[in-house]
Amino acid sequence: MGEQSIVGLAVLGTSWTCSVRGDNEITAAGMANHLKFIARTVMVPSGNVDMAYKMLNRILTVDGIVDEARRRRYYEKPCNKRRRENYENCRRIYNSEMAGKVSFLMRKNRQDPWPGC
């Protein structure tokens, strides 16, 4: 088996730390300290750090951590926060209704799955 490392990102308040560890450096005590943070960890197979970094960025983006960090960089006025949250709710409702309409049309306009039956 090839070497494996861990790329992790720990978020505590607004400080971000990224760590790359070697093969046998992970201990139970180290992981216990690591789990005190809100953490995302990605395995790095055979030293391919670029792929692990892309996976980590994708996980952070999907979880919304990147957007939250950008928003917390500066103070957001309460009126702007309400406006943003209302817009996000409306967009979420619109997207779910549009997905329902598209799935209905896909069911309605599909070809006959069993021709001749």
Question: How would you portray this structure in words?
Answer:
This is Mitochondrial ribosomal protein S21. GO terms for molecular function: structural constituent of ribosome. There is one protein chain. It contains four helices and three strands, in the order E-E-H-E-H-H-H. The chain has helices spanning 28-34, 49-63, 65-72, 78-108; strands at residues 4-12, 15-21, 38-45. The protein has a three-stranded antiparallel sheet with strand order 2-1-3, covered by helices on one side. Strand 1 (4-12) and strand 2 form a beta hairpin. The longest helix is centred in the last third of the chain and has 31 residues, at 78-108. The protein is flat.
Quick structural gist:
It comes from Xenopus tropicalis (Western clawed frog). The protein contains four helices and three strands; from the N terminus they run ββαβααα.
| Poorly predicted residue ranges | 9-24
Termini separation comes to 53 Å
**What is the strand tally?**
3
What's the order of the H and E elements?
A: EEHEHHH
Count of helices?
4
Q: Give the DSSP E fraction (strand runs of 2 or more residues).
A: 15-25%
What is the mean pLDDT? 75
Q: Assign an overall shape.
A: flat
Structural class: alpha+beta
Largest sheet: 3 strands, antiparallel
Task: Report Rg.
Answer: 22 Å
Strand order of the largest sheet: 2-1-3
Family: Belongs to the bacterial ribosomal protein bS21 family.
Keywords: Ribonucleoprotein, Ribosomal protein
GO molecular function: structural constituent of ribosome
GO biological process, one term: translation
